[in-house]
Write a structure and sequence with these properties.
The protein has about 325 residues and is mainly α. It has helices spanning about 25-35, 50-70, 70-75, 85-110, 115-125, 140-160, 165-195, 200-220, 230-235, 245-260, 285-295, 300-315, 315-335; strands at about 270-275, 280. Strands 1-2 form a two-stranded antiparallel ribbon. Helix 6 (about 140-160) packs antiparallel against helix 7 (about 165-195) and helix 6 packs parallel to helix 8 (about 200-220). The radius of gyration is 21 Å and the shape is globular. The structure holds Phenylacetyl coenzyme A (FAQ). The site of Phenylacetyl coenzyme A has 29 residues, from helix 2, helix 6 and helix 9.
């Protein structure tokens, strides 16, 4: 399926950065531009323009929030998994997503924003996280579909991020993509098993695909023409492939997988276009997407409330860890004296 070696041609030669209207020191800016133009990496200790730093904090923190809010829809099914094997797999997967959040918060912290600030922004509803996690998981097939389609879309978006110009983000993404690739396969395998089961199980899979397909296409973000951050993100080598191009790659890769699985993708306009050598597809409901992104999706309020409760319930763990670290430090100081 999708692996680390998944080769995606892209517009990876970053276009020269134009510092039009920039108030940054021209010499430092020129050095930064030259490194981006040469497809080099920017590291935390390097000088960088404030706008680059801000864009990265925005994108990486949103990404981190998506990983930890993304634990909730599947987490709901841990206690209801149909077998011990599926329960063990699901626990491991949800835990991996928490780990991805941690790598990403750490990468964002290297840019000078604390984890506390990022979490405050999430918990107060100021920060965004992926639209896809604001939909309910109604049955067990939803868990398989999240693995197949949601993780599949996430990998498609994230593999180019392994070559992002900001070193800590790019390095974090390498491990994230390896784990997401495994998640995607486990979801597909769980669905294959259900499709070989009873008619009721096949119907559940089809129902889950019908509910999730369009939401997964929207995960890639608004059409390129309506994407305010894309041009700059691509010029800086943060984004390597545009929202629409990634969406198309995802559709082209997924249609044959749906055929093998034996499900129908709920789009009457989905047809191979010989001339374009791509699948044509129907209209995404962008009004629904924006309503969800802006806090009015079916599960936004519940997801945020659950997240805030988990954070508050975990306060004693953070306090205990800090107290332990303080004691350890004092002990080390005493021993050194
Ligand atoms: N949901 O100008 P653009 C996962 C916002 S991880 C919500 O195109 P950009 C793992 C966007 O932030 C999934 N908001 O923005 C998993 C911007 O708002 P702002 C997350 C969205 O940054 C699997 C505005 O719209 N992955 O699933 C969405 O150039 C299973 C205009 O958009 C990442 O975050 C959306 N779908 O491109 C976990 C990957 N799309 O900030 C558990 C990294 C757009 O100006 C279970 N992020 N917006 O207020 C990216 O690649 C990019 O940030 C995009 C958006 C492509 C998401």
């Amino acid at each position: 399926m999708y692996t680390q070696s998944f080769s995606v041609p892209d517009d990876s030669t970053p276009k020269p950065v134009k510092s039009v209207g920039s108030t940054e020191p021209p010499e430092l800016m020129a050095k930064f531009d030259a490194r981006i133009d040469a497809d080099g990496r920017i590291e935390p200790q390097d000088w960088m323009p404030e706008a680059y730093r801000k864009t990265l904090v925005r994108q990486i923190s949103q990404h981190a929030h998506s990983e930890i809010v993304g634990m909730l829809p599947e987490g709901n099914w841990i206690s209801r998994a149909p077998s011990l094997k599926r329960k063990a797999i699901l626990i491991a997967k949800v835990q991996d997503e928490g780990g991805h959040g941690l790598y990403l918060y750490s990468a964002a912290e290297t840019l000078g924003t604390s984890r506390g600030e990022m979490l405050d922004a999430l918990h107060s509803g100021k920060a965004k996280y992926s639209s896809i996690f604001n939909y309910p998981t109604l049955n067990w097939a939803d868990v398989g579909v999240i693995g197949w389609l949601v993780d599949g879309a996430a990998i498609m978006n994230q593999i180019p991020l392994c070559r992002c110009s900001y070193g800590p983000y790019a390095r974090a993404m390498i491990r994230v993509c390896k784990e997401e690739s495994f998640h995607q396969r486990q979801g597909y395998e769980a669905l294959l098993v259900m499709m070989k089961g009873t008619q009721a199980q096949r119907d559940m899979v089809q129902d889950a695909v019908n509910r999730y397909w369009w939401k997964c296409l929207a995960m890639f973000g608004p059409p390129d023409a309506d994407s305010p951050n894309s041009a700059q993100g691509m010029r800086w080598g943060i984004k390597r492939i545009s929202n629409d191009d990634l969406r198309q790659k995802f559709i082209d890769a997924t249609v044959p997988q749906a055929k093998v699985l034996g499900v129908t993708l709920p789009d009457p306009d989905l047809k191979w276009n010989e001339e374009r050598q791509h699948y044509d597809y129907g209209q995404i409901d962008w009004d629904e997407f924006w309503a969800t992104v802006n806090g009015n999706g079916p599960m936004n309020k519940e997801r945020l409330a659950t997240r805030v409760k988990a954070h508050n319930d975990g306060a004693w763990v953070r306090d205990a860890a800090l107290a332990h670290a303080r004691k350890q430090q004092q002990r080390n100081l005493k021993e050194a004296a």
